[in-house]
């Protein structure tokens, strides 16, 4: 892989730091008066999701990371691995529970996800921003209580639990924002 | 996709503010009878400062350099007996780009004959309080700041204490090479944000950060650089010296910079030996200071980044 110098560090650039692939979040050039120039860099560790803040000497460089994002269809979970397929090549990839992480609670078969590959293997999975899922369990609905705006927990087909309005019932399908876990509305019938 | 890079990044209001600020600065010096002068921006000599990189170019088949500051030209005018003078115009520094830096920027630099750094600090405070309408001025020695925030004496702390302090305060991707780098790290990461909204004049720097300032013992007997910096809201605005006038010492520092550059694999360009000749001929005792005008405008107009006050920053230039 190519090396990137601190002045090439831009948001989204993927580099190796301490043996882990990272994505640059922010890069600030600092130079005290007549002193040495530094770069204060925020990087997201793509394995753990944690954000690191590191200071580099200006002009130092890091090795690029062999990381790429691919759109893939989620196929199924065999109990050990989550299976994805590239829609154009039909190439299949299996992702470990660690790589899928929190995304697992939003994964519905045939939905298109973003799979981050590192050295060709799935490193992380990002679900679609909006998913449509069926309610499999919730307290009975309360009719005529729509104005009050109260919420109750509802369990969805994938296992996720979200807060929904009181009038919703088991068997209904709803739209949810996976980034916030927020209920967006009833899913429209096709 | 069409590119918007032909457009200025600054608003018309920011450019009007810039024009008014330049007029205000000129008025400030007219009243005080300091002469506006032009010195070469395209020079046959480069800076020697190890942490500043000149931008090399060509002129008539010879090597030439864009001036990183008007310092050498102004000092040669002083040595020729021209008296108090200032420069308000462009300066250039390789690789300095960020939210507070642009490789081409506007600099104000002025010299006062017969003054020392303390007296010039007062004039810097006058200019800043006039332009920024800030009354609060804090005088703070470099040592006081380190002791207040880090319980550390920057002049006398051991190397291991300095390294330990840096380790505690920040995550580095490298090990600091020397004391000076430790102090720079602590200043830029830890201390600048503590300086508050008023004007802070920080003085008496470590002797090994003297650049072209006199080095003299302070009241405790520690040799310190008679150099100061002005900050507002943690933003460094100006850097001033009680100027070195000793030609032999000047030559020694140029040679030391040259050796440092050689040792660290930095660009080696010809240093300004005509400044050494000027000092030998006799430059008056004086104090001088350089001030970043773009940053002053950022503060005066409440702008967060330098792109907002420069019509065409480097990526649009």
TrEMBL record, chain A:
Chief location: cytoplasm
Domain of life: Bacteria
PTM annotation (N6-(3,6-diaminohexanoyl)-5-hydroxylysine): residues: 34
Translation elongation factor P/YeiP central domain mapped to chain residues: 69-123
Pathway where it operates: Protein biosynthesis; polypeptide chain elongation
Family in the record: Belongs to the elongation factor P family.
UniProt-listed NCBIfam families: efp, PRK00529.1
Protein name as it appears in the record: Elongation factor P
Organism: Microbulbifer variabilis
From TrEMBL, chain B:
Name of encoding gene: genX
The protein's name in its UniProt record: EF-P lysine aminoacylase GenX
Native source species: Microbulbifer variabilis
Pfam families from the UniProt entry: tRNA-synt_2
Residue ranges constituting the Aminoacyl-transfer RNA synthetases class-II family profile domain according to the UniProt record: 15-313
Keyword annotations from UniProtKB, A to Z: ATP-binding, Ligase, Nucleotide-binding
Residue intervals passing through the bilayer: none
Keyword Metal-binding attributed: no
């Amino acid at each position: 892989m190519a090396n990137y110098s601190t002045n090439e560090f831009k948001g989204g650039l993927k580099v190796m730091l301490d043996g882990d692939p990272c994505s640059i979040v922010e890069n600030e050039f600092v130079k005290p008066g007549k002193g040495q120039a530094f770069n204060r860099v925020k990087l997201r560790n793509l394995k753990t999701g944690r954000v690191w803040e590191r200071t580099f000497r200006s002009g130092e460089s890091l090795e690029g990371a062999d990381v790429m994002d691919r759109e893939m269809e989620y196929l199924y979970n065999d109990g050990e691995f989550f299976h994805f397929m590239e829609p154009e090549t039909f190439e299949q990839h299996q992702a470990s529970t660690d790589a899928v992480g929190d995304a697992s609670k939003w994964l519905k078969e045939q939905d298109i996800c973003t799979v981050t590959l590192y050295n060709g293997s799935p490193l992380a999975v990002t679900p679609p921003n909006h998913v449509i899922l069926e309610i499999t369990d919730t307290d009975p609905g309360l009719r005529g209580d729509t104005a009050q705006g109260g919420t109750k927990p509802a369990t969805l087909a994938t296992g996720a639990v979200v807060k929904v309005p009181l009038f919703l019932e088991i068997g209904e399908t709803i739209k949810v924002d996976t980034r916030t876990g927020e209920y967006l509305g009833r899913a429209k019938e096709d | 996709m069409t590119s918007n890079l032909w457009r200025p990044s600054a608003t018309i209001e920011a450019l009007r503010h810039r024009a008014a600020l330049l007029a205000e600065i000129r008025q400030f010096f007219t009243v005080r009878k300091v002469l506006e002068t032009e010195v070469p921006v395209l020079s046959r000599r480069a800076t020697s400062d190890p942490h500043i990189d000149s931008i090399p170019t060509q002129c008539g088949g010879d090597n030439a350099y864009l001036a990183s500051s008007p310092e050498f030209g102004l000092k040669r005018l002083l040595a020729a007996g021209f008296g108090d003078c200032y420069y308000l115009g462009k300066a250039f520094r390789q690789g300095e780009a960020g939210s507070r830096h642009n490789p081409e920027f506007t600099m104000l630099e002025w010299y006062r004959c017969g003054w020392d750094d303390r007296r010039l600090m007062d004039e810097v405070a006058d200019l800043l309080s006039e332009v920024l309408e800030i009354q609060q001025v804090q005088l703070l020695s470099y040592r006081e700041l380190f002791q207040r925030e880090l319980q550390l004496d920057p002049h006398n702390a051991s190397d291991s204490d300095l390294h330990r302090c840096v380790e505690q305060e920040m995550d580095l991707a490298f090990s600091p090479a020397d004391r000076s780098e430790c102090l720079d790290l602590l200043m830029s990461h830890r201390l600048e944000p503590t300086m508050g909204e008023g004007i802070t004049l920080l003085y008496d720097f470590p002797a090994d950060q003297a650049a072209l300032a006199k080095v003299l013992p302070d009241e405790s007997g520690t040799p310190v650089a008679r150099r100061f910096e002005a900050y507002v809201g943690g933003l460094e605005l100006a850097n001033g010296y009680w100027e070195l006038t000793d030609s032999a010492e000047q030559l020694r520092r140029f040679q030391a910079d040259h050796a440092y550059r050689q040792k660290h694999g930095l660009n080696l360009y010809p240093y300004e030996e005509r400044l050494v000749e000027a000092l030998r001929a006799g430059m008056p005792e004086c104090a001088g200071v350089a001030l970043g005008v773009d940053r002053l405008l950022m503060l005066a107009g409440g702008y967060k980044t330098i792109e907002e006050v420069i019509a065409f920053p480097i990526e649009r230039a």
